[in-house]
Automatic annotation (TrEMBL):
Pfam families: Pex16. GO terms for cellular component: peroxisomal membrane. InterPro entries: Pex16. This is Peroxisomal membrane protein PEX16. Its main location: membrane. The gene is LOC108626947. GO terms for biological process: peroxisome organization. It is found in: Peroxisome membrane. Residues 147-172 are annotated as: Disordered. It comes from Ceratina calcarata. The keyword tRNA processing does not apply.
Length: 361
């Protein structure tokens, strides 16, 4: 009873704010962008700037997430995953935005042992939730963060939403009419004529069904072929994603045996990344189709391989001197670049020590 009262009271407080953000999405985006820029002005400016940076970074991203969830509920944007799955993704997104803040706070409170204890707890928590998405909800490629920031420009006005829903209903009706003539086998993709679509013996046409079907059925068959894949391919994609998901735990385990800034954890993490991406590339070469979001995430992971030059021990032995030389050359040879390169050069060792010791990205 008490919880219901508290819940209703919170809804009354939030409702005016939700109406405002739904009526002013452009202004809201500008305010959010300003808030997200604040952490970059605090880097290295005062004592405990790292803690202030992470606090502002976490708060700014959590505000964006909160506003997106409110706008989705207000606009009644349909979510493509179940309620349990959406809770997992919300928790994962919150943890990804706040994990560095927890680690830095634990280091200040309890030292190195407390920091690594928090790191282990956070990585185990993230791994378990991601494995649930992969194996329970069959998500072939998990996103980072799982809930991406909402594209405010794609939110339609109420009248446009009604037109869009009407278009969806018309498309569904056309597809239903097409399915009366035939259906598509899931594994082989073969089009089979249904009994209703056969017609009488006097008017029956003995042409292949695909040439006589309406476009709605052809589009449906194309979508089915594009999104479908054979069971072995699905298992290989899930294997690749499982390897990527458990990579931080392999890294932590290897580092506990060999110590920090050693080659075995670096090589193990790189090998897992390359193996995971190689499996995905092989399946794509076998005509397994990925969605636009999945392709974007795979592209992000390939670019993330460049970050290995900023991870110890490779950074300590090879890239640190070369990066500093490049930044120094730019600041002396190119006018006005020193205002950008000098802060990067001064703060890069701190960033490398704070953000590039883990392999969870």
């Amino acid at each position: 009873m008490v919880l219901d009262v508290v819940h209703s009271s919170m809804l009354k407080i939030i409702e005016p704010y939700r109406k405002w953000i739904m009526e002013n999405p452009q202004l809201l985006s500008e305010v959010e962008s300003t808030i997200q820029c604040l952490p970059y002005f605090t880097a290295g400016r005062f004592n405990n700037s790292t803690l202030a940076w992470e606090l502002l970074y976490a708060l700014s991203n959590l505000i964006v997430l909160f506003n997106d969830l409110l706008m989705c509920s207000g606009k009644r944007v349909h979510v493509k995953f179940s309620r349990f799955e959406s809770k997992i993704k919300v928790w994962l997104t919150v943890v990804e935005y706040t994990e560095a803040l927890f680690e830095i706070s634990a280091k200040k409170l309890w030292g190195q042992s407390g920091k690594w204890a928090i790191i282990a707890i956070v990585q185990i928590f993230k791994t378990v939730l991601r494995l649930l998405l992969v194996h329970l909800h069959k998500e072939r490629v998990t996103k980072s963060p799982p809930i991406q920031p909402l594209d405010r420009e794609k939110l339609k006005e109420p009248g446009q939403e009604q037109e869009q829903e009407q278009g969806h209903r018309e498309s569904a009706a056309a597809a239903a009419a097409g399915r009366q003539q035939g259906f598509i086998l899931k594994r082989s993709g073969t089009i089979v004529r249904s009994v209703r679509g056969a017609g009488s013996p006097y008017t029956r046409v003995w042409e292949p069904l695909s040439s006589g079907l309406p476009l709605a059925v052809d589009a449906a068959s194309h979508e089915s072929r594009a999104n479908g894949s054979s069971p072995p391919s699905e298992r290989n994609l899930i294997l690749a994603e499982s390897l990527y998901v458990v990579k931080p735990l392999f890294h932590l385990g290897c580092m506990s045996l060999t110590g920090e800034k050693r080659w075995p954890p670096w090589l193990l993490s790189l090998a897992i990344d390359l193996l995971s991406l190689k499996i995905v590339s092989l399946e794509v070469a076998r005509n397994v189709s990925l969605s636009k979001a999945e392709k974007k995430e795979i592209f992000r992971r390939r670019l993330a391989l460049l970050l290995y030059i900023l991870k110890s021990p490779f950074y300590d032995k090879y890239s640190s001197v070369r990066i500093e030389t490049i930044l120094t050359t730019l600041s002396t040879k190119v006018p006005l670049t020193k205002f950008v390169t000098d802060p990067i050069k001064n703060y890069l060792p701190h960033w490398q020590n704070t953000y590039f010791y883990m392999w969870s990205s």
